[in-house]
Amino acid sequence: MTRTLVASGFHAPVRGAIQEFRDAVFVLDDTGTILSMTEGAPVPDGATRLPHSHILLPGFVDLHIHAPQYPQLGTALDVPLQDWLQIHTFPLEARYADLTFARAVYETLVSDLLAMGTTTAVYYATVHVPATQLLADICLTQGQRAFVGKVAMDDPAACPPTYRDASTDEAVTGTRAVIDHIRHHPGNAAGLVQPIITPRFIPACTDETLAALGALAAETGVRVQTHVSESDWEHAHVQTRHGISDAASLDRFGLMTPHAVLAHGTHLSPADMDLIHTRGACVAHCPLSNAYFAGAIFPLRAALERGLHLGLGSDISGGPSGNLWDAARMAVAASRIREGGTDAADPTRGDPGARVDFRTAFYLATAGGGAALGLPIGHFAPGMQFDAIAIDPTAPLGTIRLWPGQTGEVVLEKVLHTAARANIAAVWVAGRPVKP
User: 393 φ, ψ to 5°?
Assistant: First the structure.
C-alpha cells in the first residue's frame, strides 16, 4: 500500500547547494521509503497536503548524545573535562542501575528530541545492560531511528570503583548482550534501532578491552562510536600512553571501522584526518560542547575539504543545549570565530577561509549526518527514507518572523537560525508520524 503527501520545502542533497521544491508529490511505500518525488504532478485522491504555509525539511541527524546525562543538561559546565566526569557525570550515570530512574529520563529525552525534529540519534547509554536495552526499547516505542550502545569503561586508573566494568570480559559480554537484544527484538524487524559498540574513550578503557571490542566489531559488523582527540587532556593522555595519536591508536585496536562515529576531533592532525577518511569513518562535530571542554575550535572547513564524512552532535550534556538546531547555529558561529581569531592585538590571528555558512550547517544536520552513518536518510529522493520535519513559521508561540518579499534560501536561513519547538508542526520517521 502506498501513501501520498504533497509539500513544499528545502533539502541539501550535496554540500553547499540548497534545493527548494514546490508542491512536490511524495509517494511512499509502507516501509516509509520514497518511491517517487515529483514537483507539479497531479495530486491523487486521498493525498495528504501540508498547509501552504508549512515548510518541509529532512529530519535532523544527531551523531553524538550521552543519553544518561540529560538530567544535568545546562549545568556543571564550569570545570575541566576530567573533573566534570569524575565529580558530576560518572555519579549521575551510576544511577542508571535503577530502571525506574532510567525509564523516566529516557522516555523524556526521546520525546523531547523527536519534538525538536531529531529523527535519528546516536546514543551512548551507560555500563548497565538492562538500562541500555531499555533505551533501545523506548526508541522503538516512540519511533525514533537510533543507534544505542552500552558504554564500555574498565580502567581502574580512570574510572571510579562504583561505576565501571569489572573486567574486559564483562565489558564485552555486556556489549554482546545489547547487540543481541536489539538485533533480535520482535519490534525491530525493520532495523529502526541498531546497536553500536561504544568504548567510552581510550582513557577509560584498558588496552585489553579496546582490542576485544575491535575484535567484536570485526566479528559482528556492528558500527563503533567513541571520542577522538576531544581536548588537550584526552589527546595528551593517548600520546603519553601509546606514543601515537588518538586516531592512530583507535585504528591499531580495530576500532576505526567504516561509519565509525568519532566525536569532537578538535586536535586531529592532517594525517589523522586522512586516516579517518581512508577508513571510511566520520567525525561528529560538536561545536557547543567544544566551546566548553575542547580547548580548540574544530577546523570544519579544512576537514570537509579533505573529504571527511561529517555530521553534527549536540553532545548532551557537554554543552548547554540538547537540540541540533543550536548545534547547527554554533557550527556557523564557531567557524567565523576560527576564521577571524580572538585577539585583536595579534596581527596573525585567525584562519583565513575557515568559515562556513548556513547551507553547510543545514547539510551537516541532515544529509551529511545520513551519509556519515551510511543510511538512506537526510534528503528526499526515490529510495530514501521519509524522515522529515514540517515547520510552521506562523505558529502563534513560534519565533520565526517572515516578511513580504522574503523567499527562497532567505526563508531557510531564517528557519535555521530562528525556529523554536513551537514552530515544529509535525515529525515523521520512516513515513510514520512521531511528534509527541
Answer: -70, -10
Domains of the chain: 3-58+378-433 (2.30.40.10), 60-373 (3.20.20.140)
- Provide the pLDDT confidence category of residue 436 given band limits of 50, 70 and 90: confident
Over residues 339-397, the pLDDT tens digits come to: 999 889 988 899 999 999 999 999 999 999 999 999 999 999 999 999 999 999 999 99
Model pLDDT, residue 9: 98
* Strand 151-152 relative to strand 432-433, pairing: unpaired
Contact 234, 282 (CB under 8 A): no
The model's pTM is 0.98
